[in-house]
Write a structure and sequence with these properties.
It contains seven helices and 16 strands. The chain has 273 residues and is an alpha/beta fold.
């Protein structure tokens, strides 16, 4: 008798027993891949949205000891459900500490106690500068966005910054930003300011991962999702994107990761869509 081949780790089964891959949305893909990047990290300053999903999933998988910090002053959050805003009351219950804004930004962030700042943005350039303020001209913008919040301080004071981008196209990955909300260390140094951290070191998109080590380096393509080619990523980027000598293929989300994300992290589909 022939032994059937084992189903892939990221497969589920139909009622007939046939292994099939679960349908994965863009939000799920980005959250899972971003969560893996937090392995071995100690503290993460998480923005609301996909960064919250990624940090929460990492806490259940690759980084069980990670401390999640929110802009509202909550440190070591253990919410009973996914927070809808940084001021959501669920963040308070069970938290390790709740600090004033002055203490959070003055002592925790500026004190260099954040390993990873996890942010989103509308636009990013090759040096990791971010725009979350306006699309188009400042005086007459096509779209006015929420603005910095604490992103500028997170950029300047975290040891490194990860960014999750829902769209990878030339309108989001721009040679020149419409507006610079959160300058990275290269731009800060040009203005005579010495930042504490390395700035953006990882950018996770639905095409792959861009990375750099820190000051003086451009973002370059280091990994792609299955079925995506480096040429496709370069065509979707608004500058002449550098490509690593060896480009890895990112393992797709596993059934276990998707189950945790859907059933434990965000069963109410607050951010998953």
């Amino acid at each position: 008798m022939t032994t059937p081949a084992a189903a892939p780790e990221n497969a589920s089964e139909t009622t007939a027993g046939t292994a099939v891959l679960p349908a994965v949305t863009s939000s799920e893909l980005l959250s899972v891949v971003a969560s893996r990047e937090l392995a071995a990290r100690r503290t993460v300053f998480a923005g609301i949205g996909l960064p919250t999903l990624a940090a929460s999933l990492a806490h259940l998988t690759v980084a069980p000891s990670i401390e999640i910090v929110y802009e509202s002053g909550v440190c070591g959050a253990h919410p009973s459900q996914l927070p809808e805003t940084i001021a959501d009351a669920v963040l308070i219950t069970g938290a390790e500490a709740v600090l004033s804004m002055a203490t959070l930004f003055g002592s925790v962030l500026q004190g260099g106690h954040i390993d990873v700042g996890f942010l989103g943005a509308a636009q990013i350039d090759r040096w990791g500068n971010l725009n979350s303020s306006v699309i188009g001209d400042w005086q007459r913008p096509k779209v006015r966005l929420p603005g910095s919040g604490g992103a500028m301080e997170v950029m300047a004071n975290s040891r490194e910054v990860f960014v999750v981008m829902r769209r990878h196209d030339p309108r989001s990955f721009m040679d020149r930003l419409d507006f610079c909300t959160s300058p990275g260390p290269d731009r800060a140094l040009a203005d005579g300011i010495t930042p504490l951290g390395a700035g953006v070191t990882r950018v996770i998109t639905d095409l792959g991962i861009l990375a750099r080590s820190g000051v003086g380096e451009e973002l370059r393509l280091v990994a792609v999702h299955p079925g995506v080619t480096p040429d496709e990523v370069r065509a979707a980027t608004g500058w002449d994107l550098e490509v690593a000598d060896t480009v890895a293929t990112i393992p797709p989300p596993t059934a276990a990761e998707l189950r945790l994300l859907r059933e434990d992290v965000d069963p109410g589909r607050v951010y998953l869509r």
